[in-house]
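Expect chain and fold; thus:
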Amino acid sequence: MATTQDLRNGAFIRFNGELCQVTEFIHRTPGNLRAFVQVKMKNMRSGKMLDHRFRAGEAIDFVRIEFRELQYLYDDGTFLVCMDNETFEQLHIQKDLFGEATSFLKEGMTVKIAFENDQAIAAEPPTFVELEVTYTEPGLRGDTATNTLKPAKVETGATVHVPLFVNTGEVIKIDTRDWSYVGKVKQ
């Protein structure tokens, strides 16, 4: 069995019967006291953040997680249908695993799914997506000096804030982690 020395950011562990992902860990040795490892982790089922102190060298139950890249096909209500590009098997992935990032998914995109014993436990959309702006207020000439933003609706229906010089019909690059505008895409 593994110990606290094997902890890494992003590792999956079983803690109190729940699957958790380590987001941060710090090994501390306070003065003349025993060393411990302070761990911040995310409960994969509920999404809550947990804090726990493990004794240095304490046994930890690591969980083997398999990551697979699947192609997003279509939305089927509470599930997203994705296809494995190697076996062409279609899998139904729960929509809530993606969170609010489902607003940026377009048919044919590659998504990253984490599996534990053939059960989907986590999902990530692409970090950056390129989408066409379907509607935004027209930009005025010379509005590039300030860092003012305006709302813009993209082809998937999501609304993001873009600089004033972005117009309808242009393709923009969006960061799906924080819904931020990255830049225009040259065509």
